[in-house]
UniProtKB/TrEMBL annotation:
One of its GO terms (molecular function) is ATP binding. Residues 214-277 form the GHMP kinase C-terminal domain. It comes from Microbaculum marinisediminis. The gene is ispE. The keyword Ribonucleoprotein does not apply. The active site is at K12, D142. It catalyses: 4-CDP-2-C-methyl-D-erythritol + ATP = 4-CDP-2-C-methyl-D-erythritol 2-phosphate + ADP + H(+). This is 4-diphosphocytidyl-2-C-methyl-D-erythritol kinase. Belongs to the GHMP kinase family. IspE subfamily. GO terms for biological process: isopentenyl diphosphate biosynthetic process, methylerythritol 4-phosphate pathway; terpenoid biosynthetic process. The keyword Nucleotide-binding applies. It comes from the Bacteria. It holds the Pfam family GHMP_kinases_C.
Length: 296
């Protein structure tokens, strides 16, 4: 597309997640450490009279009505907040869907964040990341995190963000068994006692210190997700049984789980052997951006 802006929408991985309380409106308070992968969806945004969306890519078939797509909903919110109806611009948006849908790695939120970033630039709005996050959180609690796109600790319902500038890049394998899990249902299954805050992650600067810190943490949504989708347990076992896996855990509200590996070779070999044993699962090796990374 002529004059199109390209935006990446990287997968978000919650390395640890504590559910620390519940607000009166039913939203849960969380404390999470999230990083962003070098794989994700891709958007392109071009000037046009109205707003439109085309979806392609391996997971496009799992998204039904484009009108319900978080990309168009975010675009409409930004347009309505920034312009009078008579001067409102449009955009032709193309979304290549490479991330499984409803899978705990923020696909829809990553796409919405990328749309907000891209339209901010296409429409020359000059909104800050904070302004965009304030708008985006009304659509999805993960959108502020996805706008940051670098290692971070998030509290509140996920909108209070503290970047972790020293956090290392990590070699991960992401595995999704092809079962969509509803975030709302998983949170509704958090019926036990709430956790305390995560330990302070600010001293983490390399793989070994990350592993020590991770060993003292968990994802509190893992139990509720396994009750809804027992296959999550099979994914964790498959990761743990493979060679070179240093730690395996579920991301977000599932069902995607991640394994951590010492290097790219170990991660690629593990992804390959999971794909060979379970051809219907999605298993990819990825490197996450470190705290000083500009590409997220
Ligand atoms: C699990 C995480 O992915 C971790 O990063 C997020 O907390 C979920 O973020 P999200 O998918 O953007 O969630 P939303 O689309 O805002 O919310 C979906 C539903 O999940 C529940 N929800 C979500 C976020 C949160 N902090 N507490 C909740 O209880 C609410 O029932 C909400 O109606
Ligand atoms: N662009 C989009 N990509 C993915 N899902 C979308 C999109 N637009 C709307 N949705 C809807 O949003 C719901 C969940 O989206 P998403 O993929 O963000 O969940 P998730 O992977 O569990 O993310 P999170 O980690 O934020 O909980 C699905 O029901 C899906 O139909």
């Amino acid at each position: 597309m002529a004059n199109a802006i390209a935006e990446q929408a990287p997968a978000k991985v919650n390395l640890a997640l504590a559910v620390t309380g519940r607000r009166r409106d039913g939203y849960h308070l969380i404390d999470t450490l999230a990083v962003f992968a070098d794989i994700g969806d891709r958007l392109s945004l071009a000037p046009a009279a109205g707003l439109s969306l085309d979806v392609t890519g391996p997971f496009s078939g799992d998204l039904s009505d484009p009108g319900d797509n978080l990309v168009l909903r975010a675009a409409t919110m930004l347009r309505d907040a920034a312009f009078e109806p008579e001067t409102a611009p449009g955009a032709q948006v193309r979304l290549e869907k490479h991330l499984p849908v409803a899978s705990g790695i923020g696909g829809g939120s990553a796409d919405a964040a990328a749309a907000l970033r891209g339209l901010n630039s296409l429409w020359r709005l000059d909104w800050t990341e904070e302004d965009l996050a304030g708008l985006g959180v009304r659509l999805g609690a993960d959108i502020p995190m996805c706008l940051t796109g670098r290692p971070l600790r998030a509290t509140g319902i996920g909108e209070d963000i503290a970047p972790l500038r020293d956090f290392p890049a990590l070699h991960l394998v992401l595995v999704n068994p092809g079962v969509a899990v509803s975030t709302a249902e998983v949170f509704a299954g958090c019926t036990g006692r709430f956790s305390g805050d995560l330990p302070d992650p600010s001293g983490i600067s390399d793989l070994d210190s990350a592993l020590v810190w991770l060993g003292d943490t968990a994802n509190d949504l893992e139990g509720p997700a396994i009750r809804i989708a027992p296959v999550v347990d099979a994914v964790l076992n498959a990761l743990r049984a493979g060679e070179g896996c240093l730690l395996a855990r579920m991301s977000g509200s599932g069902a995607t789980c991640f394994g951590i590996y010492r290097d790219d070779g170990a991660a690629r070999a593990a992804a390959e052997s999971i794909r060979a044993a379970r051809p219907h699962w999605w298993a990819v090796a990825t490197k996450t951006g470190g705290g000083s990374s500009t590409s997220g």
